[in-house]
Each structure stands twice: as C-alpha cells, then as structure tokens.
Amino acid sequence: MAAETQAAERELAGLDSLELPIEPRKSFGERIWSSAWPILVAVTIVLLLWELAVLLELRPTYVLPDPITVLSRLLTDLTTNDLILAVSITLRRAATGFALALVIGTLIGLAIVRFRLLRAGIASLITGLQTMPSIAWFPLAILVFGLSEAAILFVVILGAAPSVANGLISGVDYIPRVLIRAGKVLGAHGLAAYRFVILPAAFPSFISGMKQAWAFAWRSLMAGELLVIIAGQPSIGVRLQLSRELSDAPGLLATMIVVLLVGVVVDLAVFGTMERVVRRRWGLLEA
Amino acid sequence: MTATAARSLDAAPGQGAGARLVIDDVHKRYGPVGNHLLALGGISLTVNPGEFVCLVGASGCGKSTLLNLIAGLDQPTAGTIESEGRLGLLFQESALFPWLTAAQNVNLALRLADVPAATRDEEAANLLRLVHLQGFGDKRPHELSGGMRQRVALARALAQRAHLLLMDEPFGSLDAITRDLLHDELERLWMELSFTTLFVTHDVREAVRLGDRVVILSSRPGRVVEEVPVDLPHPRVGVDDDMTEIASMITRRLRQEVQRHGR
C-alpha cells in the first residue's frame, strides 16, 4: 500500500475520532437517584398537604383519616389475600382488555394507513371515539352484554384501541420523506416497504400510542368495575364500592392508592422503559 | 485490506461495469397547464459507462427534480430517460434508517438486492471496510459524525451493486476538511469500482475536483447551458492550480446565468 494512501487513511481515521461525540456515562445508581428524587419530593409534598388538611380538621377523621392511618392500613391489607386476589382479578382484566385493544387498534391503524380512502372517514371517527368519555358507553354495554366481564372489556377496548390506532397512523404520517425515498431506491416496494421501512419508522409513535392506550384502558376498567359488579369476582372496583358502603374511609383510600400505584408502575415500568429504549436507540434522547 | 474488499465486490454479479445513462429532451412541469412551473425545459444529456459527470447550477435549476426522475421516484412530463442496470441514490442527508446500526443498514440493502443471507454479514463488513469504517458497524447513525454517516450511506449504495450512482449534494452539509477527505474517498472508490456517477452540487470547486465533465444548468426552467470537460487525470490530489482555472471559468458562466434572472 502506498505511503500516500496510508496517510489519507490515517487522516480519515483521525477525523473520525475527533468528530465522535464523547459521552459521559452516568452510573446505574446515579441514574436511579436522578429520576427518583423529584418523585420522592412530590410525594412528600402531597402527604404533607394531606396531613395539613387533617390537622385543620376540614373533615372529620372518620371521613378523612390521616396519611399514617391509611398507609398502615395499606400495609396490613397487602398481607391479606383479599387485596392480592382483587388486584390479580383486575390486572387479568386489564391485560386481556389491553391485549385485545392492541390487536384491534393495530389492525385498524394498518388498514387506515394502507388504504387512503378509509382515512378520511374512519380517522375522524377514531378521534371522535377518543373524546367520548368511556363511562358513557357502559349503559349500552350492560344492555348488550349484561352484567358480565364482556361488558367491561368492551368498554376498555373502545377506550384504548383508538389510541393504539392513532399512534400508528401519526407515526406513519410523520416519517421523514427522505427515508421513504431511500427505501424505494433500495428496492423496498409493497409489503417490503411496510416491513423494512414504514413500520419500523413509525415505531416510536406507536409506543406513545400504546402508553396512552394503557392510561385509557386503566381508567375505563376502573369505571367498569364500579358499575358492573359480578358475583364471585371481588375486583378492586368491588373493594372501592364496598368500602364506601361500609364507610371504611382508611380502606377506601388504601385501595385508591393501590389503583394509583398499579397505573403508574405499569406506565413507567412497561411503556416508559420501552419508550426510553427506543428513544435511546434512535438518538432521540439526550444523556 | 481494501484490495480484498474490492475483489469480493468485483466477484459479485453486475458490479464493476458502469451503466450508460441517456436523457433525451426531458421536460418536467408542475401544476396545471397555464399556471404551471416548468422545472425542466428540455434537458438532454448522455453519461457514458464509468464516467463521472457533475451537474452544477444555481437554485431552481431542477437538479433534484432531475435525479428524482432518473431514480424513477417521479415521472417526466415529456421526454425519455434510459439507463440499464441498478441504480443507487445518495441524498444530502444520509437518509440512513435510525433504527438500524451502520452494519444493519448495509445489510438491509444487501437483503433487498437479494443477496443470500449466508454472505450478507461478511459482505456488509467488507463494504464498511471499503469506506474505512471497520469497527463502526455496531454504531447507530446518531452515534456517527455527518461525514461517517455519508460514508455508511455510500456503503449502502454500493451494497445495491449500483451501476449508476446518483448523488444529490451528498457532501453539502459537511465541513470543508471532511468534504475534502470524502472527495478523495469517493474518487478512490469510483476508480476502483468504475460505476457511472451523476453528481449534483452547487459547489463549482467540488464539481471540478471530481467530474470528468461538468454540466452547467440554467434555472427556471432547467436546461443544459454548457458542458465543460475537465481533462485532468485522476486521482486529482495536488493539481489545485489547474482546477482553480477551470472552476473560475465555470463560476463566471454560472453568474451570467444567474444575472439573466436579475431583471
């Protein structure tokens, strides 16, 4: 190899190493801490305000118990089988409803993306469906399916599927045109274009759609469990109703905390992680 | 190392021979007749197999329109474009797929070119070595610099075994030092693999640095104004004075064209 070529290669390699960004990597502990402390501060503030409201006796303590009472009640409840059973029943419904919504939403989204004519009609319908409060569907659902799990799942799917479809559609809409052109020039036509270019490119938006769908599904499910009470299925919703009927304020609040925690944990742990992984891969995330 | 990679490319079917490109009286009109924009007003151009032709022109000369027509991404209003063989296209942005690593980007191009799965990984590694990016196969596009991304894009285009490489201001957004180095790289690859190249730029120096022939386009509508042969031997490292002379001549001619629109 000529000396000149070698010099050129060295020059190129030198330039490459100069141009590469230097990324300081945070340790695992540092990353956990930096995302945890704002949450801890926020939770502490909420607990303090709650305690303040109790101390000012805005409501009698049998209606509004103080945080310590509720949290210790939550701890005792967690050791009983009742709460565990309720959570597992509700989570099973959530998983079933969400999975069905995911399949249906994806299929509808794909159909709309593929056939432009569908878009004008159905796309606006989907947005309409999203603004419709899911609780308004329940009277109809109960009429059609009776007081059954099918009624609950029906509404959960109606609440969640549009978000999934919308995530996919907007993902496809906002693909940079240059990527589509690059795919075409590389020979990705028809199905191959969807498989290798369009769907992967729409993936980040699809995940955001799923995340939103989970929030809708969880809300619809809670509304459903309050309205559709099925014998022998002591779900979280049933516990809430029961606590109210028995005027068991600490139990009610403890269960509400469980509802909040499940929603947040699934959102952060499942969809938050997926979103972060994808964004890091694509270089959409700083640090 | 480089020699091995080049050999394996030559052994691949179809690589090596450049394609001929014949553009005959091509018009491209946008919008309805009467209230239209004539982007291309009768362009005729022949690029010989293995030739490196640069197109220069001011804004509105329809350079990108022409490349889109040649690449089959759009249809001409009138006229014909003939080219045989496979075609590669390089954009101003690298247009790499951000969800794939550098090696996977090249690999996908091989896959879409029907290269058997068994040889794809090795060939992708060879192609990355060819653009001096060995060891960067696992990086994702955002982890690479602009110049490196363009080299991956070049490797991806080569993976298509293109007989004709269309380049749409591929180095336009790079800094001067990187651009100089990439000129050397592209020239070396072109000399090794002898694909036909049509290179669009508005940098006259770049055109003279690379092209066997520089074609000057007029603006609105785009037409061929003049063809300037650049009779300097490749590789053109260290022939700056001759290049400067030709470049300033072309620049004068381009300015005349721009002045016509000043009224």
Protein architecture, described:
- The complex is a heterodimer of chains A (287) and B (263).
- Chain A is mostly helical.
- Chain A has 11 helices and no strands.
- The longest helix of chain A is centred in the last third of the chain and has 38 residues, at 190-227.
- The two termini of chain A are 41 Å apart.
- In chain A, 30% of the residues are buried.
- By secondary structure, chain B is an alpha/beta fold.
- In chain B, 39% of the residues lie in helices and 22% in strands.
- Chain B has 8 helices and 9 strands.
- Chain B has helices spanning 2-11, 63-70, 102-112, 117-130, 146-159, 176-193, 204-210, 240-259; strands at 21-30, 37-47, 52-56, 78-83, 87-90, 164-168, 196-201, 213-217, 224-229.
- A 6-stranded mixed beta sheet of chain B has the order 5-6-7-3-8-9, sandwiched between helices. In chain B, strands 2-1-4 form a 3-stranded antiparallel beta sheet, covered by helices on one side.
- In chain B, a hairpin with a 6-residue loop joins strand 8 (213-217) and strand 9 (224-229).
- In chain B, helix 3 (102-112) crosses helix 4.
- Classes of the chains: A mainly alpha (287), B alpha/beta (263).
- At the A-B interface, helix 1, helix 8, helix 9 and helix 11 of A face strand 5, helix 3, helix 5 and helix 6 of B.
